[in-house]
Structure formats: C-alpha cells, structure tokens
Amino acid sequence: MSESLREWDDQVGGFVAPADLGEYAARYAEHFAIQRHDGIVELRMHTANGPAVFSLGLKNTWSQVLAMISADPANEVLIITGTGDRWIGGIHPPSFGQPVPSWPADAAYQHAYLDGLKMLENLVFGVDIPTIGAINGPGIRTELALLCDLTLCTPNNAGRRKFRRRRPVARRRDAPGPAGTGRAEKGGRLSLLGRADRRPDRPATRTCQRGHRK
After folding, report:
1. Per the domain annotation, does 94 fall within a domain?
2. Which of 17-26, 29-38, 128-137 has the highest mean pLDDT?
C-alpha cells in the first residue's frame, strides 16, 4: 500500500488494516514457512522444517493462508513450493487412518469436502497476484502447483501416476487429477509445466528468483 493511500484511508477512517506478513507467518508456522523479498512472497510447506506431511490440519490451513496472502497489498507475486527434495513427504496416519464414511458427519463435510474445495477455490479465484508453483520433488496434491499461473518442476518429480489432462478449470492451465505426481518431462509435453528445470541440484525456488532478476 502506498503512503498516499494509507494517509487517505486514515483521513476517511473506518478501514481495518489487513494482517501483515509477521502475523500470518507466525500463525501458520506449523505448516508453512513464509518469507518475502521485494514483493515476492514464498509459501513453503513443511513439517518440523522437513518435507511436509500431508494432514487434515495442513489441508485446513491452505485456504486460510491463501486468503491472508491475497489480502496483503505488500505481496506482488506468490511462489508455492515444498521443502527439501519432496513436494509432499508422506501422509499423516491419524488424519487418514479411518475411512471417510466412518467420520462424524460434520467432520466429513468440513475436512473431506469443504477444506479440499476451498483449498483450490481460494487459489484459483481468491489470489489476485501472479502465482508460481515450484514443484521441488515427488508427492501428492501437485494440483496446487499446476493450477498456478506458471509451474516449474525439477526432474526428480517421478511417481507411479502420470500427469493427466483435464478440462481447463483455472487461470490458464489444464488441471490434473488431485493425486497426480507424474514426471517433469511428461508434464512439460502436456503443457502442464511452464518449465522442467534440468538442474536437480538447484531448488525450484531459486529458478524463480533467477527469472525475477532477469
């Protein structure tokens, strides 16, 4: 927010300032490491500062943190990535140890349906700044990166499933199935990826920063 706009808002009165980065970075620190440089905010999934373990808690916080980032006028570009050499490093057994039909009805609606819907809905329709998905390795839920405006991927993103083409549902990209992991080269041929980075020793986020400096 410019200083002139801030002064005008103060004169008019009644405006509620959005949360700043320090507030939401601390609030969601259990699941995300959030930092910003020159307007570029990096949202990095993690569990205990290692590869993220996918849990109902992580799934629930996605829509919340995206709303916070979108509402902060200091954010100009969003990078979404994982930690280390894994996009997602595993599954949280207490979250998914029981089949959904055995969950309480309100838990099934909130966590199985609504959290998943809002996680993608807020990314597609609620984030009004350019988004970059930096897939740093294999893992489930890569649709979060593939629904970004630009998707980067390291060559080690290999798995049992391949990227599968779907109808365009967001921004400018065809969306894959929710559990797709696939290979970087295959994703590039399907136009799911903006770039498959051929340097396995370079984190995907560094590619984003390198492109920004150019």
Report:
1. yes
2. 29-38
